[in-house]
Design brief:
71% helix, membrane, transmembrane helix, elongated, 113 residues, CPA3_antiporter_subunitC, Helix Hairpins, mainly alpha, NUOK/Mnh_C1-like
């Protein structure tokens, strides 16, 4: 059931990127899609267990633990996604100075020779 919600989040973001005409809505849709992808990756990586990988005093791990490597990769993906989103928002701010609207059709119409 949780996988279905995560896949629905990814699809909502994907269709938002395809069908929205406003640049800000496209950026937000991309953020929603990346959140869904990160949630799916965390969901798949945590199937082994939910316990932190701390070894007991006797050196024997008694329960299944979550792998820490995918968690580190996801933290890196979150930081990179945040920086890309910030860069896109700066680009949209620069574009908004020249155009009164952020609709793609209007921007293309104004910038076509």
């Amino acid at each position: 059931m949780l996988e279905a919600f995560v896949v629905a989040t990814i699809l909502c973001g994907f269709f938002g990127i395809l069908f929205k005409k406003n640049l800000l809505m496209k950026i937000f849709s991309m953020d929603i899609m990346s959140t869904g992808v990160i949630a799916y990756y965390v969901f798949v990586a945590s199937r082994g267990g939910f316990v932190t990988p701390i070894v007991a005093a006797d050196g024997v791990q008694k329960v299944a633990y979550a792998d820490p490597v995918p968690q580190a990769v996801i933290l890196t993906a979150i930081v990179i996604g945040f920086s890309i989103q910030a860069l896109m928002l700066v680009g949209v701010m620069k574009l908004a100075r020249d155009n009164p609207t952020l609709e793609i059709t209007e921007i293309e119409k104004n910038n076509t020779p």
